[in-house]
Every structure is written in C-alpha cells, then in structure tokens.
Design brief:
537 residues; alpha/beta; nine-stranded mixed sheet; 21 strands
C-alpha cells in the first residue's frame, strides 16, 4: 500500500493532497493557511508551513507527485526540490505533466468507468487545453492545445481591460457579462479557427497562428481588445461602462463556442457522452451548462478544485492510477477534504475573544434557521473545509432569498461590486419544481428558474434568471441538510442564499479565529460554528 503526497500550484493556487492506499485522506490549499488569495507555493518555508497545518501523519509517504514539468525544471524550484529530498528522504519523486494532473483530477474523481476528459486553462507545460479518454484505470491523452491560443489567458486579458489587473478576477467579469450585449462576438469568431483535430487558433489581424506576440501576454491582448473595439481601458477607481459589459458578454459567448468545439472533439475521440472537465475554465458555469443544454454530453462531472488548486489532487490520483474511496464513504466525490476544528477548539478561541456572547446548542439547526427566517445574515462553519473556490456549506455566508434587497446588502458588507451575484442552496424538491437542468452538488453549472418562480427567488438569481445552484441531498453534510430542512419547514421553501464566508480580498475562512473576526468586524449578524451560536454583545 503506497502513500502518495501530491504537491502543486507553485506559481499560484498552491495545495497539497494525501492519498493513502485506496483512500483520499485530505487536500489543503495554501491560500487558506497563508490568508493570501491564490497564493503559490514558492519556497520551502511555505511548503513546510502548509504541511504542518494539514495535521496529517506523513511518516509513511513513499511517493511524491510533483505537478507541472516546467516548474520542476525551473532553477527557482531548486530549494523546494532540496527540501522534499531532506523531508522525505526515502520517497520516490515523480513529475506529472500539468494537464495530465487536471485530467486525472476530473476523471478519477468522477466515478465514471469510461468517459471523455477535457482540461482547459490559461497555460501549463506549453498547453492551454488537453483532450483525453478515460477507461478503467487508463487515462490516455490524445490532443494538446498550444498555449499561444488560450481561453484562460483571454479571460485574464478581459479582466485587465475591465480594471482588474490582478490574477483571479475571471469570476467577476463573468458576472459582468450578464449585463452586456455580445456585440464584439463576430470579430472574435473572425479571428478564431476551429480545427478538425479539436484544437483552435485565436489570431489577431496580421499575426500568424500561435505566434502573435500581442496575444501571448495578457496585458498586450487587453490593450489590443480596447483598441480594436474602442473600449476605454478601465482603472480600478473608475466606473464600469456599458462597453466593458459588452466586451465581457462577447468573450463569454466566444468561450462557450470554443469550449463546445473542444468538448465535441473530446466526446468524439473517447466514444463516450460522459465528460469530465477540469482546468480553471471549468469554473465557468455558463459554459458548463451549455454542454448539457445543447445535448453535447449526457453527463458532466466538473471537479470542484478545477483550477490549479486541484493540480496536487490530480498528480496524486494520476500516480495512484485508479478511483479512490472517500473517508466518508459517500458515493460521489466528497469535496470536504480540508481541516476541521471541533467544539473544544472553538471554545478555546471564544474564551480569548472580547465583546462576544455565545450559546452552545444541541440542535444548532433550529436557532440558525429561525435567525435566517428573520432576515439575518449568518456565518456557517461546520466540519471539514470544502475543496476549491466555491463555498459548499462548510465555510458559507447564508441568508434568506426571500428578503428584498438581500443580495445588495451582502455585496455591501463583503465589499463587492453591485453586479456580483450570489448563489442558491436548495433541496432536490425545490430544484425539480423551480429550476431547469440536472443535479449539481458543487455549484459548477447554472440552472434557470422557471418564469413563475423568478420573482420569489430573485435575490439569489443572476440578471438572466439563472443561479449557480448547490443541491443538498442525502450525500451532503448532515448538518447542512438539517439546516436547510428546518428553514424549509419554517418558510415553506428549502432554499438559502449561499456565498463564500470571507472578508474583502480574502480567501474562505479556515480557522475559528478568522470566522470570529468577521463577526467582530460587523460583517455578520451572527456566527454558527460547530454547535455554537456567537453574537456581538
């Protein structure tokens, strides 16, 4: 029985994963420990801190799965390589190619015995996408998309043009797209060639395919977009204009077309209408939904840590070479793989916190549901941290979707732009009655509310009447299911607004101290954490 330690995300989204035998023990992201969004593992000291924070027994690690060939060969990684050699002196280190990590993270977590597999991101090991076929324990990559034409980099350029120069703003401009018209789509498609082998080229006028310098760097591509479409480059302090929303809507529509092309090729080559999807572009819920709604695939699995935060998971699964059991024993992939802090740990923090009152409940769902029904905004911390960027009811900010103005209030207290949407957490009965589409437990596809339900769920819907649903069912955390059930009994509808529990510019909270700090800062009406109800005195 081998024990595999996966390590990935050296430039951004660092994380580690532990696989012991047939069991996925855990997965922890560096941003949750360092408290820096999208933080990469750049030094031995950072890796040592992350490993210590996991609380895992690492004495039997005999294989280290290093994600990303280019990063391993980079001289800047010499310190990390030396640290691993000292720390795990008897372990064998294997390097796993970037997109093989993404592909493995999706396929081996899907539960499918046979599937098409697709990875799409900005760039990794000289590719921006890869197609593969999964069959049993075999994962065979068939096609690699050259990185000079990249969907992920196009979104980075779009973010810069819209005033978000930092990495990781694609989610913001995806929300902005709902407010625009795709009036630049024809031009984008005119610069795009969809090739028979499943690849594509995206080339500016006068450039050669896959060689244009202005399309290699995101800042140059952003400048090109602004010039070509007469869109003023926005500074962070300036208001958003209609032209920026139109550019976002155009890139969103272009993305859906190109992803559809890649998915069709993957399905054709694999001979399967089941598709597994990973890479940062897999977090685009509208694109994911189109694959199902257009009938391109019958079943879609998107791995929750789809970005580079899932590279360590994929590296470990690629070397394990088989699907693994979850510690909880649930049938599908269990995303709750991070740290957990029990009531005793919470109580110790509360003892040292001033200006707070707390009550410990035997059944915390009842008072929490009653507070939500009164219109309060709650922090909810329960069990192990969820994997990936989406709050899945372990580190969530929850509210009632039936209180007018709730979305705007949440955006104000989180310091977010007014166009940013929130998501909905619903049970299967509400999903069938009020929304289109199949179940998605991870908030990775959108569902449209039926016209006669849109007014009721308006606070949890995007402008186009869709929502990024999380379905709570028998395989969801029991505490979350109990809360939703109780709220449904009080209000008549089992549905809650669900968004990430974090402050402006911060990652999801991890430790009790971070959740309590949000309450103390006035960003929550109350905090329900591991059985405690905590309020400001």
């Amino acid at each position: 029985m081998s024990t595999i330690l996966g390590i990935g995300g050296f430039d951004h989204d660092g994380a580690v994963t532990l696989v012991r035998g047939d069991t996925l023990v855990g997965h922890l992201e560096w941003e949750r420990v360092s408290r820096r969004r999208f933080a990469g593992l750049r030094s031995p000291e950072e890796l040592a801190l992350l490993l210590a924070a996991t609380g895992w027994d690492l004495s039997d690690v005999d294989v280290i799965a290093w994600a990303d060939q280019e990063r391993y060969e980079d001289p800047a990684a010499a310190g990390l390589r030396a640290f691993l050699k000292r720390r795990f002196w008897g372990a064998h280190l294997e390097v796993v190619e970037h997109h093989r990590c993404h592909l493995a993270s999706a396929y081996f977590a899907s539960g499918f015995e046979h599937a098409a597999v697709l990875s799409i991101d900005g760039k990794g090991d000289a590719a921006s996408a890869a197609l593969a076929r999964g069959a049993g324990a075999e994962l065979r990559m068939s096609t690699r998309q050259p990185s000079a034409s990249s969907i992920g980099r196009t979104w980075h350029a779009l973010s810069i043009a819209c005033g978000y120069p930092h990495f990781g703003a694609a989610g913001k401009v995806m929300a902005l797209a709902a407010y625009g018209r795709p009036r630049f789509l024809d031009a984008l498609l005119g610069w795009t060639a969809l090739c028979d082998d499943g690849t594509f080229t995206f080339t500016a006028p006068g450039e050669r395919p896959n060689e244009g310098p202005s399309f290699r760097r995101a800042d140059r591509k952003a400048a090109f977009f602004c010039s070509a479409f007469d869109v003023p480059p926005r500074q962070a302090s300036e208001p958003m204009r209609d032209a920026h929303a139109d550019l976002a809507a155009s890139v969103q529509a272009w993305t859906e077309i190109v992803v559809e092309h890649l998915a069709r090729a993957a399905v054709r080559e694999a001979g399967s209408r089941r598709l597994c999807l990973a890479g940062g572009v897999a977090l685009n819920v509208l694109s994911n939904s189109r694959l199902l709604d257009a009938g391109i695939v019958d079943e879609l699995f998107v791995q929750p840590a789809a970005g580079d935060d899932g590279l360590s998971l994929g590296a470990a699964l690629a070397l394990a070479g088989r699907p693994l059991s979850m510690p909880t024993g649930i049938g599908r992939f269990d995303p709750y793989l991070g740290r957990t802090f029990g009531p005793e740990a919470v109580e110790r923090v509360l003892w040292s916190s001033n200006g707070l009152t707390s009550v410990r409940h035997d059944d915390v769902a009842r008072p929490a549901a009653e507070a939500l029904a009164r219109g309060e905004i709650l922090g909810w911390v329960s069990g192990r941290e969820e994997t990936g960027p989406r709050a899945l009811g372990a580190r969530s900010l929850l509210a009632s979707p039936f209180v007018a103005g709730m979305r705007d209030r949440i955006n104000r207290i989180k310091g977010r732009e007014p166009f940013r949407p929130v998501a909905l957490l619903v049970d299967e009965c509400v999903r069938r009655e009020a929304f289109t589409g199949p179940v998605c437990p991870y908030m990775l596809r959108s569902a449209k509310a039926h016209s006669d339900h849109q007014a009721r769920f308006n606070e949890g819907l995007h402008r186009d009447g869709t929502s990024r649903l999380q379905i709570v069912d028998a395989e969801s955390p029991p505490e979350l299911a109990r809360l939703l059930e109780t709220f449904g009994a009080i209000t008549g509808t089992a549905a809650l607004v669900n968004t990430s529990l974090n402050g402006p510019g911060e990652p999801l909270v991890g430790r009790p101290e971070e959740a309590i700090a949000l309450l103390s800062a006035g960003r929550l009406d109350a905090l329900f954490i591991e059985g405690f109800e905590v309020r400001r005195a």
